[in-house]
Design a protein that fits this description.
The protein is an alpha/beta fold. It has 3 domains: 15-156, 3-Layer(aba) Sandwich (Rossmann fold); 163-222, Orthogonal Bundle (Helicase, Ruva Protein, domain 3); 227-316, Zinc Finger, Delta Prime, domain 3, CATH 1.20.272. Helices cover 54% and strands 10% of the residues. The protein is built from 14 helices and 7 strands. It is elongated. The two termini are 45 Å apart. The model is unreliable at 1-10 (pLDDT under 50).
Amino acid sequence: MVSEIWTEKYRPIKFSEIVGQEDIVKRIEGLTSSLNIPHLLFAGPAGTGKSTLALIIVKELFEDSWKENYLELNASDERGINIVREKVKNFARTKAMGKVPFKVIFLDEADALTPEAQQALRRTMENYSSTCRFILSCNYSSKIIDPIQSRCAIFRFKLLEKVDISELLQKIAAQENLTITPEALDALYEGSEGDCRRSINLLQSTASISPNITPDLVSTIISNAKPKDIKVVLDYALSGDFQNAREKLLDVMLKESISGQDVIKSIQKEIWNLPIEPDIKVRLTEKTGEIEFRIVEGSDPFIQLEALLASFVLAGMGKE
């Protein structure tokens, strides 16, 4: 995954610069070099290189005439059947310019298309396959109807590993004269959770404050609960001191302006570092999931987190 910024003053991005998706890139590069691709479906989490790879394919196919042969639409903005009947069909029915006999339409966030729009898209893909190729991008391929999936070659993207993101961030830091510590790289990776775009944005936000990137500075930008603060809360609870655990939790949430869902995620990560039996960790993880569901459904976050702390107190006492 590389940054999606691609303007005339920057050199074209190459296949070799995409990290973390080597198997997919190798197969796509082979198809592109033959100047012929099938309909493609890119599925996977955000920030893993789907949109960037689509742009590289188009640039490689059409070179200088890529703008005349490429249409990009974001299906989450225009998700109704009219967008398929009008914009997509009008573009698809016209002949391509240049040596490649087809145009390319890129539908970003295609899983946001309504079922009716997807049915119309299926017919368009079938009727205009000689003059147009579709590249669909989505987070969840299960939301794309089966007839469209059967017409596409499906490529599933994965979240990037720490080594891939660290390599890219170090390269950016060197070019921008930033000083970044290994601990800060770890904090950026934890904050991005494998999303390359988010890690770059976090680095840029942090660099706007200081060229010396430190873990504390990254934590300030991320606005997540610090692991050491959550550990104090859980230590109080496991020792049976519910009152101090409750007060420390309230202090963390108010001072850092952290939402209940962010606290839940931090607690879930910290559970596995606690000095308790594995079976207790499993039960507490299950309880954490239940509390997270209640918060998402609209329950008061602090009351639910208090209930979770009560479960930690009981676990510390050896009770169910």
